[in-house]
Amino acid sequence: MSAAADAARTTANILLEIEAVLFRPDAPFTFTSGRKSPVYVDCRKIISFPRARAKLMDLAVERIAASVGYESLDVIAGGETAGIPFAAWIAERLGLPMVYVRKKPKGFGRNAQIEGTFPEGARALLVEDLATDGGSKLGFIEALRGAGAEAAHSFVVFHYGIFPEGIARLEAEGVSLHALCTWYDALAAAEAAGYLSGQGLAEVKAFLDDPDGWQEIVFYTNPQSRGRIVRWMLEEVEAPYRAEYLTYGPALQTPEFLAVNPMGKLPAIRHGGTVVTETVAICSYLADAFPERGLAPPPPARGAYYRWLFFSAGPFDAAITARAAGFEPPEAVRGMIGYGSLERVLDTLERQLSAAPYLAGTDFTTADLCAGAQLVFGQHIEVIAPRPVFTDYLDRLAARPAFRRAAALDEAAQAAMDQQGETREQPA
Ligand SMILES: O=P(O)(O)OC[C@H]1O[C@H](OP(=O)(O)OP(=O)(O)O)[C@H](O)[C@@H]1O
Predict the structure, then answer these.
(1) What is the pTM of this model?
(2) Which domains are present in the chain?
(3) Mean pLDDT of 275-288
(4) What residue owns the CA closest to ligand 1's atom 6?
């Protein structure tokens, strides 16, 4: 094993041991940007483990000597903030001066972006804890060069290794990136130590191979299904998604689709490593996954919200489909039928909508989306007769741009499927 490969394995094992790298394919992390990831790294933790950090810094100076040279550097520059302690330890080991670079000039006083000093033409090594796509490195390098340094090298403990275009950009700027390990090393160490196997391992590999593709929402639907409700929700949250249209019949019974929904039913979504089925569950999941859209009240205020969400998934859906199927529960068994009767369901809904503009109060929520879509469907198939309160309510819902976008997309999808002669019939 080469020294670099050996160092990569040791680094990965240390980072696993101190829980600086975490793998959670079953419950992906959500970053501030809303991006999802089954992996997470926090190199800042290293500073709190003296033995681990000493070993990593020993490996760092060996790596720097091998990649940059023994006498090829004049100053070590730490990038604000996480890079600063690592730069200090490396400078100490190499017996070199140190400076640190702010992300932006201070804005007053000397307006310094670099703290510390070096002579014109000093050969600087930029040190940071980690590199994702290398974007921050460019800013630090520019500052170093602006202050007269030659800056052709950057060192990090951990490099994601999954954004090649970022590294190409650094190289184009004349900067070589040196790292002790990447996600691929961490993954190999996690696999060897038994942290990951089977589906979890496959999930992490899929993410590392295509991080953007992995987190795109895949929407399995047919425009004739309850997928229309989910489509509306997807348009409300405005997250990127890719629709996969499936015809009824064998396409829903393939092993691939049954792995998504063992019921062989539509709709379903996959978001990162998370698969969600059941229309209202999908809508609730999306409301929580994209909280900035304000489609669910805060948890302490969710009483009415949950009531009407579950009302739409349970009694309302069952009452409409039973009536549409020609099934009327006999009087004697109504007590054991969750919804009692369609009339009772509709009267309850009407009372609520006479008291407030939306089901959970003054604001539109995912409960309105789910119940409103059922109401639209029930009226469309003439199982529900229009009532003035319902008409006003549906006018409010139909005025939403997401509602209109979703309807147009599903109409277009239906037309395309019709043109291809794909079945419109739902199986028995
Ligand atoms: O953009 P890249 O070059 O790929 O590197 C990622 C940067 O993100 C982190 O710092 P962050 O911006 O969170 O700032 P901090 O160190 O001050 O917390 C990390 O320490 C790197 O500087």
Answers:
(1) 0.70
(2) 3-209 (3.40.50.2020), 216-419 (1.20.1050.130)
(3) 96
(4) 131
